[in-house]
Amino acid sequence: SDNPQVGFVGDPNGVWGYLPPYSYGVHASPIAKLLNDYGLFAQAHSGFSWPDLQNEIAAGRPVIVWVIGEMWPGKPTLYKAQDGENVQFANFEHTMIITGYNQKKVEAIDAFSGQAKRYPVEKFLKSWQVLGNMAVTAQIWDPGQLVNHVYLSSILVSAQSTSVSSVSGHDLPDILAFPGMPLHIRLVQETPRQDRLAPQ
């Protein structure tokens, strides 16, 4: 599919920074579906507010957010997928996991490297709004329902009648940790990001 609302678009190990139909990534809905398949109660959001995100973090629940690159600014592009859906895209679509905040900064785990870093709140909010404040929230209702403490070399996402697509490290967290439950989702290793940038 060329629709990231349905599944991964392109090659997970392809050049980073392109738009569909070339290697791009995946949006929130397929990720929420995948996490639900592994025993979490996950929800995809569009237009998620900064206060809503703060409430999730205050409750001890990290939030996956869609930003541009390393919290860069960006410009959305409207694209009509082959299934007829109009979807917003942006070059260098990326995910991070917000794990903390204060009045000036947010703490985020980079979904590609697994490294934690702090960014100015204003810089984060500007980057997050490019793709419409997209996010995935998740809770564990019953730890016994989790499919193992999942260690995967790769994760497959399938949506209805579409073909199965691989999901890779720059679109899902390398480590997704929830307080009180050592859940780790390890994803396929990729070449360093600086070697995978789309040409300017």
Description:
The protein is built from three helices and ten strands. The chain has helices spanning 28-37, 50-58, 121-128; strands at 41-45, 63-68, 77-80, 86-89, 93-101, 105-110, 116-120, 135-139, 155-157, 165-167. It is α+β, with helices and mostly antiparallel strands. It starts with 27 loop residues before the first helix and ends in a 33-residue tail after the last strand. 39% of the residues are buried. The longest helix is centred in the first third of the chain and has 10 residues, at 28-37.
Note the topology.
Layout: H1 28-37, E1 41-45, H2 50-58, E2 63-68, E3 77-80, E4 86-89, E5 93-101, E6 105-110, E7 116-120, H3 121-128, E8 135-139, E9 155-157, E10 165-167
Antiparallel strand pairs: 1-8, 2-5, 2-8, 3-4, 5-6, 6-7, 9-10
- What fraction of the residues are assigned to beta strands by DSSP? 25-35%
- Gyration radius (Cα, Å) is 16 Å
Order of helices and strands: HEHEEEEEEHEEE
- Overall 3D geometry? globular
Q: Give the % helix.
A: 10-25%
Q: Could you give the order of strands across the largest sheet?
A: 1-8-2-5-6-7
Number of helical segments with 4 or more residues? 3
Low-confidence stretches: 148-200
The main pleated sheet reads as: 6 strands, antiparallel
What structural category characterises the helix and strand content?
alpha+beta
Gap between N and C termini, in Å?
A: 26 Å
Q: Could you tell me the mean pLDDT?
A: 74
